[in-house]
Design brief:
This protein is an alpha+beta fold and 429 residues long. It has a domain of 171 residues: Thiolase/Chalcone synthase (Peroxisomal Thiolase, Chain A, domain 1, 3-Layer(aba) Sandwich), CATH 3.40.47.10. Helix content is 36%, strand content 18%.
């Protein structure tokens, strides 16, 4: 058996995350991938053609960009012979691209891979209703003017009202629960209050604003330029003036009137892309690269879709157990902030004796995760959650945060729509 090889994250970059504001944004999924991919590749010592493959996570693929990984690779000048494919596991797609690249390199099937995630939720499709599709089918089958006229008068105004694709995409087809409703379930189960969720959201905005002010993200976030010459230089959803009073005035979105989840303590709907470059030790030496971190291992888990918010607990815990690590051994955590209540429920689950015993199979509670080790520069509540991108972003940011803080070990983890979770363990190189 071949000895598994070490895999390093040597560089990465992302676009600013741009909040969706009721209209199509300036960039398609591939546009976003190219915006941060081109300068990232340009600052490397190797040529764009030197990569073994390109892997890209994307959930809402648009019709003009089927297999966005391949389209992006060609637009990035990586050559006609570059193998490129797209992966999709809902919110985990950006991490799945990294995990796939990690395993290729670890097993000796590649040395240098560009792995990323992209999502333009503002370009999510509007879907025709089934009744409208049936009507159009009837019109196309009509033979002669009389039959055409008879079918034409069957149209109803309601047929012309489109279905919002994103709304259906964020609803689990098995439980028929929206992602926000699943957050309400785990919040109720672990006693997460509205005030707790709002306080968490305020802190997320404060931390991202501070990171923007002190240029912590300057190497990670690269500006994007649209075709009209407009510059997008930073995540534009952050609200540093958020307060308990301002968030407290918002109505619950999913479970009125007493629910915990509001527009203020949930992740924002955004557009954005992120790339990471993964390399073997041989590629690091050959190209004289300077790794940021080493990917130690990864893990995935699945659970009842109604409790999907606990995916980080279910995936990160066995990953750490496999390496003989506990909560105190992790210097920094990145947990994707799908909802404040969901993150807080994960923290509570790790401290709940019954849950840890009955669900995780632990003799004692896993333990508390100190707030000063968790999402230290804010998260998706402040900067947004472009679904196919977020898993890539949290791994990239964790690597950078570990290096900047002089810390050793970190976990990036996320819940995944449909009842799954993913986690990745990093160590500074």
């Amino acid at each position: 058996m071949t000895t598994p090889r070490e895999v390093f994250l040597v560089d990465g970059a992302r676009t600013p995350f741009l909040k969706v504001r009721g209209k199509r944004g300036p960039f398609t999924p591939v546009d976003l991938a190219v915006q941060c991919g081109r300068p990232l590749l340009d600052r490397q010592p190797m040529n764009a053609e030197d990569y073994d493959m390109v892997i890209l996570g994307c959930v809402n693929v648009i019709a003009d960009e089927m297999n966005p990984a391949r389209v992006a690779a060609l637009r990035l000048g990586m050559g006609a012979e570059m193998v490129a494919f797209t992966v999709q596991i809902n919110c985990g797609s950006g991490m799945q691209s990294l995990d796939t690249a990690f395993r290729y390199i670890r097993e000796g099937q590649g040395d240098l891979i560009l792995a990323g995630g992209t999502e333009a939720l503002s370009h999510a499709p509007m879907i025709m209703r089934d009744e409208a599709v049936d009507w159009l089918s009837g019109m196309q089958r009509s033979s002669g003017p009389i039959a055409t006229a008879q079918n034409a008068v069957q149209i109803r105004p309601s047929h012309l009202r489109p279905v919002i694709g994103l709304e259906r995409g964020l609803t689990d087809p098995i439980t028929d629960l929206s992602m926000g409703q699943t957050a309400e379930i785990v919040a109720h189960h672990f006693g997460i209050t509205r005030k707790m969720a709002d306080a968490y959201a305020v802190e997320s905005h404060r931390r991202l604003a501070a990171a923007q002010d002190d240029c912590t993200l300057s190497d990670e976030v690269l500006p994007a330029f649209d075709r009209d010459g407009n510059v997008y230089a930073h995540d534009d959803g952050v609200r540093p003036d958020s307060s308990l009073d301002s968030l407290g005035g918002l109505n619950p979105v999913f479970e009125k009137p007493y629910g915990q989840v509001t527009a203020g303590n949930a992740s924002q709907v955004t557009d954005g892309a992120s790339w990471c470059i993964l390399a073997s030790a041989e590629a690091v030496e050959r190209h004289k690269l300077r790794p940021i971190a080493r990917i130690v291992d990864s893990g995935w888990a699945a659970l009842d879709p109604a409790f999907m918010g606990l995916g980080p607990v279910m995936s990160a815990t066995p990953l750490l157990q496999r390496h003989g690590l506990g909560s105190d051994d992790i210097d920094l955590w990145e947990i994707n902030e799908a909802f404040a209540a969901q993150v807080l429920a994960c923290l509570a689950a790790w401290q709940d004796e019954g849950f840890c015993r009955d669900v995780l199979g632990l003799d004692t509670p896993f333990g508390a995760i100190p707030r000063d080790r968790l999402n230290i520069h804010g998260g998706a509540i402040a900067l947004g959650h472009p679904v196919g991108t977020s898993g890539n972003r949290i791994v990239l940011h964790l690597a950078n945060a570990l290096a900047q803080a002089g810390r050793k070990r970190g976990i990036a983890t996320e819940c995944i729509g449909g009842g799954q979770g993913g986690a990745m363990l990093l160590e500074v190189a």
